[in-house]
């Protein structure tokens, strides 16, 4: 299959490129500012905010499957509007589209969220992701919307780098013990996104890890896996700190998982220290 990974220079995008290449697909990937992050695939510069550039690239590559991971924190146009530009560029084409979304579309008021839950974002980022879901589905109704949670990898995700900086005292900060998510491993997430992409499903799917854990417990597990020094990790309460945004958001992926071969492991399993 001709597969295009939009945002191929990002943390998730890079793993998608590796995974799709390994599965034997013909892979192209886009970057906006970091071409050096892509290896093993044809690379193309793309700013999704530019409708004409987006349309020209789709015309040139003629992909059969697109997985869109692109977003930019703090940029409404890149996160909310640009995905609609992409969907618009696919009109009159028979292309599978998987759009990556986030648990940030939920406020946390209900704590547990299944695929049927109605988004009620409380941050600009969450609102942008919710808007992107709506626009993508409206323009390309057969799209898969894949919501996920904190993406953890082999040490290079922003979450892991933050924990390393705290644990080694390079950065001050607190990990909240009441800030709960369902982290997912980037390998599992990439495999599941490709599985959904090559299949024939559409609509909303949840791809989060099986364990609901706090940022503090996640930090301890990351520090224990990468370095035994955990003394620099301080815990606190997000509720007491009165920080705006969702506190406890647990994506329930049970229904999506039932139809997948890929197992979405929980953080306690994938961050277990190697024996010996
Ligand atoms: N990270 C998490 O824990 C997490 C949790 C839930 C959901 N998500 C969602 O998962 C997806 C991937 O996250 P990630 O952590 O892999 O992100 P990332 O590492 O920050 O990568 C973002 C990608 O988007 C590209 N990009 C930014 N603005 C763009 C634009 N205007 N046009 C085209 N490309 C643009 C970047 O290109 P350059 O780097 O080349 O500039 C990069 O390839 C996002 O949709 C995010 O909302 C992430």
From TrEMBL:
Stretches assigned to the RmlD-like substrate binding domain: 1-269
InterPro entries for this protein: NAD(P)-bd_dom_sf (IPR036291), RmlD-like-bd (IPR029903)
Domain of life per record: Bacteria
Protein name: dTDP-4-dehydrorhamnose reductase
Organism in which the protein naturally occurs: Microlunatus soli
